[in-house]
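Action item from last meeting closed. Structure (234 res):
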C-alpha cells in the first residue's frame, strides 16, 4: 500500500513551494547538485552564508529532495534526528531553513566526489554539520577523504558509472591477471542497475587462480581507448 504524504498546512506548503521554485531557477534540467541547509538564526563563522551551515547533500532531483526535508521536519517525527529536530524548531518558530546550491554537475559521480569536498570545506570553516556520514560530520585527513570518495563512487550503479566515464581495473593479487572493464560490459553480464560495489563482491576472487582481486576505479578517455586514475580530492 502506498504511504500517504505527511499532513502539512496549506500555509507551510506555499512557503515550501516558494523555496523550491527559487532554487530550481538555478539548476539546469537533469543536473546533479550539491546543496547546503542553513540555520539563519546563527551567524556563519566563515561569513560566507546567511547563517550557519547545518547539513550538506547531493541530489539529481534537488526540488523533491528539499521538499522531502521540509515535509519531514514539519511533522516532527517521533525520532527526528538532530537535523530534522533543528529544522522543525526553525519551521515552527516561524523561521524557514535556507537552502543554497553549492555546485552543479553533469553526472552523479561528480556530485558524490564534490559532496565530500564541500563537507570538508564547510567543517573547516566552522560549520556544524548534522550529517551522519564520517566524511561529512568530522574533519578528515586527505588520505581519508580520498578513501571516502572512493567508497561513495563504488555505490554508483553501472548506468551512472558508464555515464561518468568510469572504468574498473581488476587485478589478481597473485599476479596472474589484470582486466580493465567498462561498466557497459558489466551491465551486459549483470544487471545495469547493479552497483560497482556489488560487482566487486561478485568478482572478489580471481577466476584463474582463486586469489583475492584488487580493484581500482578509472576514468575513461574514449578517444585513446585508455584509462587514467580518477581524480578525487579537489
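Sequence:
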Amino acid at each position: 500500500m502506498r504511504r500517504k504524504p505527511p499532513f502539512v498546512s496549506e500555509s507551510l506548503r506555499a512557503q515550501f513551494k516558494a523555496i523550491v521554485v527559487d532554487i530550481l531557477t538555478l539548476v539546469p534540467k537533469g543536473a546533479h547538485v550539491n546543496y547546503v541547509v542553513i540555520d539563519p538564526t546563527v551567524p556563519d563563522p566563515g561569513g560566507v552564508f546567511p547563517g550557519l551551515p547545518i547539513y550538506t547533500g547531493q541530489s539529481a532531483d534537488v526540488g523533491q529532495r528539499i521538499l522531502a526535508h521540509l515535509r519531514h521536519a514539519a511533522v516532527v517525527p517521533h525520532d527526528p534526528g538532530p537535523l530534522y529536530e533543528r529544522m522543525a524548531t526553525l519551521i515552527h518558530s516561524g523561521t524557514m531553513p535556507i537552502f543554497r546550491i553549492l555546485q552543479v554537475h553533469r553526472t552523479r559521480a561528480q556530485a558524490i566526489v564534490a559532496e565530500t569536498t564541500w563537507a570538508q570545506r564547510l567543517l573547516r570553516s566552522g560549520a556544524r554539520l548534522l550529517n551522519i556520514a564520517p566524511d561529512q560530520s568530522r574533519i578528515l585527513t586527505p588520505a581519508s577523504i580520498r578513501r571516502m570518495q572512493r567508497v561513495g563512487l563504488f555505490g554508483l550503479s553501472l548506468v551512472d558509472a558508464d555515464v561518468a566515464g568510469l572504468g574498473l581495473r581488476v587485478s589478481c593479487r597473485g599476479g596472474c591477471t589484470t582486466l580493465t572493464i567498462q561498466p557497459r560490459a558489466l551491465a551486459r553480464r549483470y544487471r545495469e542497475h547493479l552497483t560497482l560495489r556489488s560487482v566487486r563482491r561478485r568478482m572478489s576472487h580471481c577466476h584463474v587462480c582463486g586469489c583475492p582481486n584488487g580493484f581500482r576505479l578509472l576514468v575513461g578517455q574514449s578517444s585513446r581507448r585508455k584509462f587514467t586514475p580518477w581524480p578525487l580530492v579537489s
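Note appended to the action item: Strands lie at 32-39, 52-59, 98-105, 166-172, 178-181, 213-221, 226-229.
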